């Protein structure tokens, strides 16, 4: 009897406590629900994913910096324009296999894990860069030289197609909810670091070597410098912990499963924005060739233009991610994009008219600073808007198709437009169209920042 009474009293106490808790929960506004910060994992994730990304994008992008020299080595022609176009077309061949790599390695990352997919991508890129750097010139082995270069570029494209999606998913999943923007911003920042490293190497080689030596073997040195760091990058990738099956504690970001209408809408908008980002990135990366072949400035100034622009881009990418964690994704996408859109034509007009170091370095640097910020916010917004079970593959596929269609054609299109019109403002026209399309898509993107969504929930909840 006494034990029965005691159990009844305890049950009553629990019921009373539950009732009080229920009443308290209806009176109090919900608190932010955040994923606890795992600082060691976050640091390792950023280090491993970023360094691997840097090495891969350095190897892939260095080709564009030395497009003229590579064209002369593998695609000799009586007309310098024809040689350059053949070289740029081969650069574009690397984009053909990007969607295939995205489908294969991206979906593999959603099944087997992010780490094995990123490691496989890195191994393939390592093999391709060695082939590209060590292939003899057309004058030595004839038609076999351009064939080997094209094969190497196809393998590079496949590897890089499966790199961005798994890496972005990995950075998002390894970061605390309140720091996702900054963590994911290391993805675009690492691409800028790679481009900066390539431009820096080009600047040093152009100052230290004669034009003849740079044309004959200087570009090979640039490629081999990247290849020398491949063992370190492979070791880093192999040591990364897996995040695919790491529990994600509830956040206030609604995650759907599979390709729901919400996820499909995010993917469509993401394709438009990534296409724009691709055009702007590759037109900006084309500035070294543009400065040499169109503006006819000195080689040190041409490489210095890309170096300054990409250095500014690194800071801008990280700043965009940091701001997105504090002000929300949409604000940091939209307002800087409007500013960049208004700046594009005046900056290029200044560059084409003056052809001075101040215009090239200062004008393009300022445009890069403003224009890079919105895309960092977009990266994390899109990754948050995709369900975890398709995040790596979906991001990779959308990115790869945008790159394949618009990245692989950006530099040949700009070169053709300049040749057709005779106007040095052709790059600005192409960038204006791309920026306008991106702004329209950004205006339709939903807010995905956990703290911003929580604030909206608090306002709607009863007092």
From TrEMBL:
Residues 1-35 are annotated as: Disordered. Keywords: Cell membrane, Membrane, Symport, Transmembrane, Transmembrane helix, Transport. It is found in: Cell membrane. It comes from the Bacteria. GO terms for molecular function: symporter activity. SUPFAM superfamilies: MFS general substrate transporter. It is a multi-pass membrane protein. Belongs to the major facilitator superfamily. Metabolite:H+ Symporter (MHS) family (TC 2.A.1.6) family. Residues 45-449 form the Major facilitator superfamily (MFS) profile domain. This is MFS transporter. The chain crosses the membrane at residues 57-75, 81-105, 217-236, 269-289, 301-320, 332-351, 357-380, 392-410, 416-444. The keyword Transport applies. One of its GO terms (cellular component) is plasma membrane.
């Amino acid at each position: 009897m006494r034990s029965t009474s005691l159990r009844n009293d305890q049950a009553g106490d629990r019921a009373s406590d539950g009732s009080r808790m229920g009443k308290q929960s209806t009176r109090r506004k919900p608190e932010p629900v955040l994923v606890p910060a795992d600082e060691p994992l976050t640091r390792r994730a950023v280090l491993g994913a970023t360094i691997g990304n840097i090495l891969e994008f350095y190897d892939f992008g260095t080709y564009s910096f030395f497009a003229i020299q590579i064209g002369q080595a593998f695609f000799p022609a009586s007309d310098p324009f024809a040689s350059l176009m053949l070289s740029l077309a081969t650069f574009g061949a690397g984009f053909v296999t990007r969607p295939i790599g995205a489908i294969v390695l991206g979906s593999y990352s959603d099944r087997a894990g992010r780490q094995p997919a990123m490691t496989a991508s890195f191994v393939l890129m390592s093999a391709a860069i060695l082939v590209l750097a060590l292939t003899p010139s057309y004058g030595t082995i004839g038609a076999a030289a351009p064939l080997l270069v094209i094969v190497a570029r196809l393998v590079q494209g496949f590897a890089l197609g499966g790199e961005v999606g798994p890496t972005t998913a990995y950075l998002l999943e390894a970061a605390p909810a309140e720091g996702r923007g900054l963590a994911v911003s290391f993805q675009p920042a690492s691409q800028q670091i790679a481009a900066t490293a390539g431009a820096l190497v080009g600047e040093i080689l152009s100052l230290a070597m004669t034009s003849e030596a740079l044309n004959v073997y200087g570009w090979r040195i640039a490629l081999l410098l990247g290849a020398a760091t491949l063992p370190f990058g492979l070791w880093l990738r192999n040591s990364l912990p897996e995040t695919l099956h790491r529990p994600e504690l509830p956040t206030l970001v609604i995650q759907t499963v599979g390709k729901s209408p919400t996820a499909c809408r995010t993917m469509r908008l993401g394709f438009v924005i990534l296409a724009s980002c691709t055009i702007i990135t590759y037109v900006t990366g084309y500035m070294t060739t543009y400065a040499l072949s169109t503006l006819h400035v000195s080689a040190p100034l041409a490489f210095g233009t890309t170096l300054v622009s990409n250095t500014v881009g690194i800071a801008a990418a990280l700043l965009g991610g940091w701001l997105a964690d504090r002000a929300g994704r949409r604000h940091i996408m939209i307002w800087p994009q409007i500013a960049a859109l208004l700046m594009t034509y005046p900056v290029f007009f200044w560059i084409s008219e003056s052809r001075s170091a101040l215009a090239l370095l200062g004008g393009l640097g300022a445009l890069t600073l403003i224009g890079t910020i919105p895309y960092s916010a977009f990266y994390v917004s899109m990754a948050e808007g995709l369900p975890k079970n398709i995040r790596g593959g979906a991001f990779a596929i959308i990115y790869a198709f945008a790159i394949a269609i618009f990245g692989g054609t950006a530099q040949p299109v700009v070169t053709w437009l300049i040749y057709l019109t005779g106007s040095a403002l052709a790059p600005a026209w192409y960038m204006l169209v791309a920026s306008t399309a991106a702004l329209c898509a950004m205006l339709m993107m939903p807010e995905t920042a956990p703290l911003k969504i929580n604030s909206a929930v608090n306002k709607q909840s009863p007092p």
